Amino acid sequence: MNKIHQRRIVYVLLFSAGLALATGLILYALKQNINAFLTPSQITSAQVSTRAYFRLGGMVKKGSVQRDKTGLGVQFTVTDLKREQTVRYVGVLPDLFREGKGVIAEGTLDPQGIFVASRVLAKHDENYMPKNVYKAMRENAV
């Protein structure tokens, strides 16, 4: 093997090592941003750690929303129609948040088993319409 072949092999090895390092760093960065999506049934069956950050999804149980008398705190129950999970959140809820509607909450479980949400997202149905279109449809229907 002459010097040109040896130099090419070194370049290929260095390129491969750099590519492997870049891939490893990208996968490590993506791993930190991945949030699991669980339902109340999956939480009870999976023995979720209190340090795990994940998304809880389901429907807000009717009659379960309890707002703090002072402040922005709210407690409600999320259900998947099989199991229920109590959620505690301090902050402004989205406009679409309603009892009986879909919700996704991001957060962790506390030692008492209550889901402490850092963010709450309300889901809407697939028939979304802007306010002005909805208003015009209502006026024409009357």
Characterize the structure shown.
A 5-stranded mixed barrel has the order 2-4-5-7-6. The mean pLDDT is 84. By secondary structure, the protein is an alpha+beta fold. 35% of the residues lie in helices and 30% in strands. The chain contains 3 helices and 7 strands; from the N terminus they run αβαββββββα. It has 2 domains: 1-34; 35-122, Nucleic acid-binding proteins (OB fold (Dihydrolipoamide Acetyltransferase, E2P), Beta Barrel), CATH 2.40.50.140. The protein starts with a helix and ends with a helix. Keywords: Cell inner membrane, Cell membrane, Cytochrome c-type biogenesis, Heme, Iron, Membrane, Metal-binding, Signal-anchor, Transmembrane, Transmembrane helix.
Mean pLDDT: 84
Level-1 CATH class name of the largest domain: Mainly Beta
Give the termini distance in whole angstroms. 88 Å
Strand content: 25-35%
**What does the main sheet amount to?**
5 strands, mixed, barrel
